[in-house]
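Predicting holo structure, 1,5-anhydro-D-fructose bound.
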Amino acid sequence: MQSPVRWGILGTARITRRVAPAIQSAPAAKLIAIASRSEEKAKAWAEKYECPQIVESYEQLLERDDVDVVYIPLPPHLHAEWTIKAAQAGKHVLCEKPLALNALEAETMVNACQQAGVCFEEGVMWYHHPRATQIRDILNQGRLGEIRRVTSAFSFPWQSSVEPSEEYRFKQEQGGGSLMDLGWYCVGASLWTLGMLPEEVFGREVLDGSVDESFSGWMRFANGAEAAFDCSRNMTSRRWIEIAGTEGSIVCDDFTRPWQEEKTRFWIHDAQGNAEVVNCEAATQETCLIENFSQRILTGQLDNQQSLGLKTQQVMDRLLKSAKSKRNENEF
Ligand SMILES: NC(=O)C1=CN([C@@H]2O[C@H](COP(=O)(O)OP(=O)(O)OC[C@H]3O[C@@H](n4cnc5c(N)ncnc54)[C@H](OP(=O)(O)O)[C@@H]3O)[C@@H](O)[C@H]2O)C=CC1
Ligand SMILES: O=C1CO[C@H](CO)[C@@H](O)[C@@H]1O
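Done. Tokens:
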């Protein structure tokens, strides 16, 4: 495939305000077209982000020969349908988190991409930031000893211009809830750190209507390590992770969205209690994701079966099942 990789976007989602400039600025990527259900929205969007083409429907975007990869930032209940259609149209797919409503759907998506010979990636961005590489290097060097525990939190007080009745995050059937929206990052970070699926999981939810407003989870791994997290859309803003080993720990206070400027950093605490600040290379995580995925497409790295997104979704199912099993426990 020729560089740059040519990108199309399905829908004028809010998150595109961060991803469109990333496609424009990543050296290996080029923004070709936006598709929307509304011509008016597409026109306004294309003008704002200097996108050369607008397309009247998602189907028409998938039919275009000048698009190599599609970005799918639709509500989660539409991810499987459009990922499979895109793969069948021969397009590589960057699909937003949560990948799907459940693991079965996510497996179908990954399999469709595998069969079509296209690359598949999830929209979690921090994995692609240079800080993640620095943390991985420290883990690989064994500076923390054996990793015993990963603890993480992602919460914020929900505010949006969107009417709650229109918001997918409040609808269970559309893939809403704090676990799917925010806990996704904590579960993904735990699997990213420990490199395996948990043997045992335990989940507890605080329900608001049909979805969890807050969720606490715990996982135990075959090597004895544990991971614990909490997430909420009704709490102050918290986005931190701690990776604790037998000889030291790493703490990172903004793991889901590294500061874009020189402020991005993390701390290493040694066994004596000394703390070292590690300052990281400044980078925009959205651009890192777009560039990395474009490079993966250019170099034909087609293996999707080890997708961290798929594993995260498998753990989501188990956590939700655990929480649901306790729903009626306190009823008399
Ligand atoms: N990786 C990250 O950092 C982030 C990821 N996300 C993820 O991105 C995805 C999009 O989130 P967000 O930006 O809040 O999405 P929005 O609700 O802002 O937009 C979703 C878009 O999907 C299109 N759409 C198609 N069908 C429907 C439908 N039935 N109902 C509503 N919208 C529809 C619309 O585009 P149109 O009308 O133009 O066709 C709409 O603009 C989610 O999966 C979310 O979890 C969100 C924020 C950050
Ligand atoms: O993925 C996401 C990143 O964080 C947001 C909150 O700040 C979420 O709502 C969103 O879906």
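The chain has nine helices and 14 strands.
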